[in-house]
Design goal:
This protein has 156 residues and is mainly alpha-helical. It has eight helices and no strands. The radius of gyration is 22 Å and the shape is elongated.
Length: 156
């Protein structure tokens, strides 16, 4: 806090927000991250990370509308270069609240639009898991029907 009082800089404000975040004081973390987004809008190297932390703090405080709005802003930054990150964080959020359909929608969008993304393996794994689960259900159904006419082998 003293460092920010003496001379507010992008780094000191970012670290202050992170300190609050690590302490579980998400309200103050949000306050500092929002100040950052207003005062240091031109800090292209660190601003996306601030938006990620801000969205996470919103989620931690149950402010899902603000979190999703913040991730939407992240997706538009630098011509959309962070959209894959925003999609991943949205997917994780939807998973955390049990909305698997929306989670998969975000992962599918990521997989189709960003095959070279570092987040692609996470998205592909989740999609594959869902698809194998559905095909597994079909196999199970088929097995049950087949089992009606089949005699189990005698175990010796």
């Amino acid at each position: 806090k003293e460092s920010v009082k003496v001379r507010s800089s992008a780094t000191s404000l970012f670290y202050l927000g992170n300190c609050y975040y690590k302490l579980g004081d998400y309200g103050n973390a949000i306050k500092e991250y929002k100040v950052f987004t207003k005062e240091f809008r031109g800090e292209d190297e660190i601003l996306p990370v601030v938006y990620q932390k801000l969205a996470s703090a919103y989620i931690k405080t149950g402010q899902s509308k603000e979190a999703l709005s913040t991730l939407g802003e992240l997706a538009l930054m630098s011509g959309g270069v962070f959209k894959d990150t925003a999609l991943t964080l949205e997917a994780r959020y939807y998973k955390s609240i049990g909305e698997s359909a929306r989670e998969l929608e975000r992962y599918r969008e990521l997989a189709s639009q960003f095959p070279a993304s570092s987040w692609f393996p996470e998205a592909r794994a989740r999609i594959d898991m869902e698809e194998s689960g559905k095909s597994g259900e079909k196999k199970e159904e088929g097995k049950e029907e087949k089992g009606k006419d089949t005699v189990e082998p005698i175990k010796k």
